[in-house]
Amino acid sequence: MEVKNTSFKDLIICTPTVFNDERGYFYESYKDTIFQEKTGLSPQFVQDNQSQSTYGVLRGLHFQIGEMAQAKLVRVIEGEVLDVVVDLRKDEPTFGQSFSIVLSSENKKQLFIPKGFAHGFLVLSQKATFFYKCDNYYHKESERGLKFNDPQLGIDWQLDANDLILSEKDQNLPDFETIKQQL
Q1: Terminal alpha carbon distance of the chain
Q2: Tens of pLDDT along 119-162?
Q3: Which of 27, 62, 119, 138 does the annotation list as catalytic?
Q4: Is 139 one of the annotated active-site residues of the chain?
Q5: Does 182 have pLDDT greater than 90?
C-alpha cells in the first residue's frame, strides 16, 4: 500500500498494491498492521457501511460530534465519486478548509478521514457503490451536517447545481457559521 499525506493532519490517501493477471485482479483493501506501520495511526474499526447511488446524488456533508465522532476509511467499489471533506477541528490550521479527491473503482484509492471532519460525496458515474469503515458506531443523536454549498467553504462540486440530487435533510443543513458556534 502506498500512503500519501495531505496538507491536513492525519487525512491520508491510501492506494493499494494491485496484482493484475489474465484472470483479473487481487488486492488487500485493508490490513491493520500495514495501515499502522505506514500511517502511525491505529483506528479500531467497528462498523462497515455501504451505499449505492446514481449520477448526481450528493450525500453530505455529515459528521458526528462528541464521544461518537467517527474516523472513516472510504472507498468506491463501483463507479466514481468526488469525495469531499471539511476540517472542523478548531485547533488545526486547516480549520474550515475543504479537501476533495476523485475515488473510483478504477483508481482504487481510499481516503482515511480522521475524527473532526464533515464528509460528503457526489456521484460522477451512472451508478456508484460507496463503502466505508468507521471506528465508532452510528449514533443518531450525535449526527450533524453542514450545508454542501455554503459560499464560505467554496467547494467546487464539479456539476451544475441543477444536476444535483439531495435528500430533503441534506438540503436543509446549517451553514458553516452556525456549525462553528456549535463546535
Answers
A1: 34
A2: 999 999 999 999 999 999 999 999 999 999 999 999 999 999 89
A3: 62
A4: no
A5: no
Is 3.40.630.30 the CATH number for 2-182? no
Strands (E), the chain: 2-5, 12-15, 19-21, 24-26, 47-54, 58-64, 72-78, 80-87, 98-104, 110-113, 117-123, 127-134, 143-145
Q: What is the spatial distance between Cα 178 and Cα 35, in angstroms, rounded to a whole number?
A: 35
Q: Are 100 and 46 in contact (CB under 8 A)?
A: no
CB 136 within 8 A of CB 116: no
Catalytic residue among 132, 137, 138, 139: 132
Q: How far is CA 148 from the centre of its chain?
A: 13
Domain spans, the chain: 2-182
Rounded to whole angstroms, the Cα distance separating 97 from 154 reads 9
Q: Is 62 a catalytic residue?
A: yes
